[in-house]
């Protein structure tokens, strides 16, 4: 039996593996700046978030047709299944596609097509969270949100991602207020490269229910008190933190300190095609590095369940499966 996992911080565009990228380039007659898989992989040496984003936005230019978005999402779900993922709340960046001429509906409906078959095909329930690029104007995000609300493709929530420093959450207050008024769930990246003040803003101005990354919250004791008191989840992504140089090495990662501080943290893969592995790889590496053992692995899995937007009944059912897994471990 695999440890049943919930994944809450996963950019679907960040699951684009080099092999599929080359296949889609050939299918869509897109000329790539890289001559081979090896030449593409040689670009995966990032110095910070922006250096990664430059490649991430460049690579997704191969996604052109509705079926491309479906194939991308299906490939993730197939891999997630082998990791033991039972529920995934997936981020999708509409502006990364509309800004290069792909219609909103083409991209969004392509992802939705794959999610609609996810329970049947892989035993994975899903939610779809549209993330807005904070380094583009809030007015553009508002326009796209209005289009989505008026259109026929259902989503479950909104989030905020892309280059963080210089783009504080407060810029998006109106966008999040509109989403809330329509019953959407609210999350935001904050405290990845940006200061703890951005986490406060995400909580108090945007009203987010969950913070993505949030790792720099460790610099602010009052913020930690708030996160612990209100059981605000942080979706932590260890491989991402190391590859984007937020943390020097995995051995320096504060995940255990965060657990010990009483924070509701869970482990996620962020952009697994770029950062060296999927959610199971992240957990296995942490287990090796810190000797987490079955109790803390089960705790991380239970935290993911609690942090999710599943119903209480769904959470209880999955948590019982984690307990069953734990009872089978030494
Ligand atoms: N941070 C911000 N924006 C992103 C990320 C990330 O880790 N991945 C994809 N877009
Ligand atoms: Zn992210």
UniProtKB/TrEMBL annotation:
GO terms for molecular function: adenine deaminase activity; zinc ion binding. It catalyses: adenine + H2O + H(+) = hypoxanthine + NH4(+). Binds 1 zinc ion per subunit. Its cofactor is Zn(2+). Keywords: Hydrolase, Metal-binding, Nucleotide metabolism, Zinc. Pfam families: A_deaminase. The keyword Nucleus does not apply. GO terms for biological process: adenine catabolic process; hypoxanthine salvage; nucleotide metabolic process. The active site is at 192 (proton donor). NCBIfam families: aden_deam, PRK09358.1-6. This is Adenine deaminase. The lineage of its organism: Bacteria, Bacillati, Actinomycetota, Actinomycetes, Micrococcales.
